[in-house]
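A quick aside before the break. I want you to see a complete sequence-to-structure record at least once, exactly as it would be stored in a machine-readable document. Don't worry about memorizing anything.
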Amino acid sequence: MAINRPGEPGNQSFLMFCDYVKLSFVDRNVTLEAFKGSRKGTVYLMPHQVVFLSKDLKKALRSFTMPFSLIKDCKIKRPKLRPGYIKGQIEAEPNGGWIGSTTFKLTFHNGGANEFGQLMLRIQAEEMKKHDLVTPDQVQNRDSGSQHGH
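That is the input. The structure line, written in tokens, reads:
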């Protein structure tokens, strides 16, 4: 994940977008100013990543790029009487402006969480298979599995 990358999503093609989405980080130990609070904006589903663009360009975090290879534990939630959301873990991208991992939450106030999330998960799985990549989850499972076999 990278923050405030210039030109995202730029002239790239996107598969789907949703407006009136709130991005927040639910980790209590967040120290990076860009991750504090929430921001509203538009989220784009692209062939290799998800990009969030904030409506408020005065905030510390103006864009949030999540390559599929760095997303794990992603779940789509549809609570009753509240907007649906997508929640998951994101690992820092090399030279992405931060280090480590955090939990993100995208809340869809005008609907679309289920449709966006289902398509995102499908595209992520196809992308990982096509490029023979593994997610951080798969690396952990593979590592822990090999330890138990000895």
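Two observations worth writing down. DSSP finds two helices and eight strands in the chain. Residues 139-144, 146-150 have pLDDT under 50 and may be disordered. We'll return to this after the break.
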